[in-house]
Amino acid sequence: MTTQLIARYSLGNSIHYGLIEGDKVRRLVGSIYEGLNLGQETDQLAEVRLLAPVERPRIFGLAYNYNAHTQEANKTVPSAPVVFMKPDTALVGPGDAIVYPHDGEIVHYEGELTVIIGKKGRYITEDKALDHILGYSCGNDVSDRIVQRRESAFGTLLAGKGYDSFAPIGPVIATELDPANLQVITRLNGVVKQDANTSDLLFSVRYAIAYLSRFMTLMPGDVIMTGTPAGVGPIAPGDVVEVEIPGIGVLRNPVVAEARPAA
Questions:
Q1: Contact 243, 250 (CB under 8 A)
Q2: Closest residue by Cα to residue 107 from 163, 151, 59
Q3: Cα(4)–Cα(174) distance, rounded to whole angstroms?
Q4: Rg of the chain taking only CA atoms, in angstroms
Q5: What does the DSSP assignment read for 92-123?
Q6: Half-sphere exposure of 37 (CA within 13 A, CB side)
Q7: Which ranges constitute the DSSP H helices of 135-218?
Q8: What is the per-residue pLDDT across 212-250, written as a single tens digit (0 to 9) for each?
Q9: What is the mean pLDDT of residues 187-208?
Q10: DSSP letter assigned to residue 80
Q11: Do the strands 233-234 and 133-140 form a parallel or antiparallel pair, or are they unpaired?
């Protein structure tokens, strides 16, 4: 089947889903999780603002899911997926700012393939896993390393990855891609920092879905950030981070400094 690009976007005071068709977006009617049903209205792509492709999702992340990244982090290769979660308040969309914490010291980008679940399921088998996927997007698992290391020493992983704005996702949801063969490219201020293929994932997308659904029901709109390849590094206010996956597009986010909270 042909890849379709699903956009969630705002125009004026309204928010819509639509399919990108050249320089236009054809609006969808009904829930995107019940079928991509085209309406009659179209909007000019240049006139809309693309938003995070899902609203208030559960965000699951996989840590140390590329061998080379596990080595650069000086970690033992995991025998099972290392899973964490980000709150929905961490979500931002294309063009939105990554807010660098006022007390942050070492904050890293982590470009990765992101999976959008489209069909509810529990005890999903690997051979049926792709049937539960609506599509794929670009993601950036922004992480505060100081907080993360402090947590990891006691076996937790939440606050360092859970700051507001630490889960950029977008620019669209692309359907009908092969998640086992996608290039993930991250650029910092135009310089390539990460360039790897999802064929190098330690735990495939199929396996990750089957694994998670052993413990919990996966729901439409759930997001799985599948892990980052080698080449992670620091960001600072004033930087621009781009995560590109051919077939999906480019997720671009500026980094801005957080205003120090009032005493």
A1: yes
A2: 163
A3: 6
A4: 18
A5: E-TTPPEEE-TT-S-EEE-EEEEEEE-S-BSS
A6: 7
A7: 145-152, 159-162, 205-215
A8: 999 999 999 999 999 999 999 999 999 999 999 999 999
A9: 98
A10: S
A11: unpaired
If one compares 70 and 191, the residue with the highest pLDDT of the two is 191
Distance, in Å, from the CA atom of 10 to the CA atom of 26, rounded to the nearest integer, reads 13
Flag whether pLDDT at 80 surpasses 90: yes
Strand 191-197 versus strand 183-188 pairing type: antiparallel
CB 206 within 8 A of CB 126: yes
Identify which has the larger pLDDT, 255 or 155: 255
Here the tokens at position 76 are: 């033992």
Q: How far is Cα 28 from Cα 19, in angstroms, rounded to an integer? A: 7
CA distance 242 to 255: 11
**DSSP class of residue 57?**
-
Q: To the nearest whole number, what is the mean pLDDT of the chain?
A: 96
What is d(CA 4, CA 116) in angstroms, rounded to the nearest whole number?
Answer: 14
pLDDT digits (tens, 9 = 90+) for 202-216: 999 999 999 999 999
pLDDT of residue 37: 97
CB hemisphere CA count around 72 (13 angstroms)? 14
For 225-242, give the secondary structure using H, E and C: ECCCCCCCEECCCCCEEE
The pLDDT tens digits for 42-65 are 999 999 999 999 999 999 999 999
Structure tokens at 209: 């879905």
**Closest to 68 measured CA to CA, from 222, 232, 236, 245:** 232
The two three-digit tokens of residue 259, written as one number: 């205003």
* Whether 38 contacts 4, CB under 8 Å: no
Side-chain half-sphere of 197: how many Cα atoms within 13 Å?
5
Alpha helix stretches (DSSP H) within the chain: 67-72, 145-152, 159-162, 205-215
